[in-house]
Structures are given as C-alpha cells and as structure tokens.
Amino acid sequence: MFKRLFGAKRQTNRQATDALYGEIVAAARQPWFYLQWKVPDTPLGRFEMLSLHMFLLQYRLHGQAGPAKDMAQVLIDEFFLDVDHSLRELGISDVGVPKRMKRLAKMYYGRTAAYADALERQDDQALVAALKRNICPDEGGDEDWRESALLAAYVKQVVHDLSAQTLDSICAGVLHFPRAGV
Hints:
About 70% of the residues lie in helices and about 0% in strands. By secondary structure, it is mainly alpha-helical.
C-alpha cells in the first residue's frame, strides 16, 4: 500500500522528468549552436541555450491543466536545481549561490517573457532582437551576430514541432527537439 502511495507514481514521474530534462539538455548542447551559429561556448552561453530550450517546452505546456501543468512545474524545479548544482561545480561558495541564483532566475524569467511576447505577436524581428540581446549581448549593432535570425527560425520550428507532440507523450517522458541547422 505505501509503495503504491509513495513509490510507484513518484518513480514514474522521476523517470519521465529525467527523460524530458535529458532531452532539453541534449537539445541545448547541440554543437551546431556553438560552432556554426556562434553562441558563446561559455557557462553563460550554455545557460542561455538551456534556458531557451526550457522555455520552449514550458511554452508548449503553458496553460495546460492536470499532469502537463504538474510536469511543467517539476521541470522548472529540476532546471533550477541543475543551475544551482552547476554554480557549485564552478566553485561559487555556499554564501554566493543564493545571490547568483536570484540573478539567474530573474534573467530566465525576463528572457522567457520577451520570447513569449515575440512568439505570441508573431513578431520575427522582436524574437531576433531578444535572442541577440540575451545570447550575444557583447555583439554591437544590427549587423553583428547574423546567426540570430537562424536561431529565431529554429525557435519557431521547435514551437511548431512541439505543438504536434501530444501532451500524453510529453508527460510520459517522450520529447523530440529538431536538430539545429537542418
């Protein structure tokens, strides 16, 4: 009885969460982003790509009820636990981690608001500008980081592809992101 109450469902959710989060991380680590589209291959650049892919799944699950809503929350919790763990691995002290986490959470939610707004308004220029501003902020002017338009097209493709994936399959841990640059 206790196993049924506390074990089986939790384990199933853990397996689905691990599978989904693994797909998000794998999508964010595609070499194409860093080698061809010149996303900075730095801790911050990797955070940006992980944030973008987390946002894309959250965007798909937004407004859903039941298991999809629960999965969205579990995944965002997993994301921030992973970020916390990564900060500690980078040598940030226990005292410094909460301050950095607060800053990174603010960054994540600010970016996701900009991406969601651009997608909702179907404003390609706003999406390109938000990606440019967030992922390659050191590039100056409109001509720099031309690959941002390619990344914006990828983002739109992911939104389309995720919308075709059923909520049941996503909640079961089955998720597919398209390959970048294809």
